[in-house]
Amino acid sequence: MTKEERVVEVEMRGAIAVITLNRPKTRNAVNRAMNEQAVAAMDAFDRNPKLRVAILTGAGGTFCSGMDLKAFVAEGIPSVHPWGFLGLEHHRFRKPVIAAVEGDARAGGFEAALACDLIVAARDARFGLSEVKRGLAALGGGLFHLPRKVPVNVAMEMALTGEPITGERGYELGLVNRLCAPGDALVEALALAGEIAANSPLGVEASKAVIASQHDWSFEEKTARQQAIGGHLASSLDAREGALAFAEKRPPKWQGR
Question: Catalytic site residue 188?
Answer without folding.
Answer: no
